[in-house]
Amino acid sequence: MSVTLEDKLVVAISSRALFDFEEENRVFDSGDAAGYMRLQLDRLEQPAAPGIAFSLIRKLLAFNEGDQQRVEVVILSRNDPVSGMRVFRSAQAHGIALQRGVFSQGRSPYGYLRPLRAHLFLSANADDVRQALAAGFPAARVLTESAQAGSNHPNEVRIAFDGDAVLFSDEAEQVFQAQGLQAFQDHERRKAAQPLPGGPFKPLLAALHRLQRDGDARMRIRTALVTARSAPAHERAIRTLMDWKIDVDEAMFLGGLPKGEFLREFEPDFFFDDQTRHVDHAARHVPSGHVAAGVANR
After folding, report:
1. Residue 1's pLDDT band (boundaries 50, 70, 90)?
2. I need a surface site. Which of 31, 49, 179, 238 has the fewest CB within 10 A?
3. How many other C-beta atoms can be found within 10 angstroms of the C-beta atom of residue 160?
4. DSSP summary character for residue 82
5. Rounded to whole angstroms, how far apart are CA atoms 298 and 194?
6. Which pTM does this prediction carry?
7. Cβ pair 147, 268 in contact under 8 A
């Protein structure tokens, strides 16, 4: 029987998103690619510290048990194959079951998302993320300066999403950007019963919903919608999720309040937002990623 990832949640992740390679990356960014390779080889027996997305990946992989392999994590990296050895060694040392990786040695690896049929791509490289989003894949630039995830919920994968331009299209955001808050509220009130089109992260939310539905009692997924919307614009967001037949566990309609402290209380393993001001503030409190989609990022 041929090997397939068809029935799995597939996450592609760069080495810097999974592990703390910031010191090594400064050598690479200086233009000394050979020095970077030597440093990684010298540290081959030294496991790298967990990176910003480590908690998310570790918990997702906990859905796998025996013959029930529901999640696949693949390293997708601009690193060279030699440096890739340290990535796999570090994963083994931390008990992270990685089997597959693509190391493109300086070339953007986003094209490999297509044969992987990835549901999510996490990278510290903004250009790779933009190209992945343009190709139709849920993708986010990991803020490597983010706070690490907490440890209070070992049996729950907690993920928080912004709404417009993340879970939903940026249709309403375009109205807000062009005409202001009142026009936005009026627009959403008129269209309250009309579901919003899906945004770049709808496929990930749907895949998480399937994973939760088909999983077991050992691990569960808890999701939150954390949005700058407020009443009356909240109704269209709720009705959209109802139309998709996808539930979120919590919804926060913050009316423009800073999201960081609310996210700190939710304690997500990761938060996704398209607005740099929101994601920068959130990163002080929780692991965060910037989704460079929609009118706010043009």
Report:
1. low
2. 31
3. 27
4. H
5. 26
6. 0.94
7. no
Q: What is the pLDDT of residues 230-283, one digit of tens each?
A: 899 899 999 999 999 999 999 999 998 999 999 999 999 999 999 999 999 999
Residue 150's SS3 state is: coil
Catalytic residue IDs: 162
Contact, 13 vs 123, CB < 8 A?
yes
CATH 3.40.50.1000 fits 156-297, yes or no: yes
Measure CA 197 to chain center: 20
Domain segments of the chain: what residues? 9-142, 156-297
Q: Cα 99 to chain center, whole Å? A: 20
The domain made up of 9-142 is a member of CATH 3.40.50.1000: yes
Fill in the amino acid letter for 147. A
Question: 123-168 pLDDT, tens per residue?
Answer: 999 999 999 999 999 999 999 999 999 999 999 999 999 999 999 9
- DSSP-derived letter for residue 120 is E
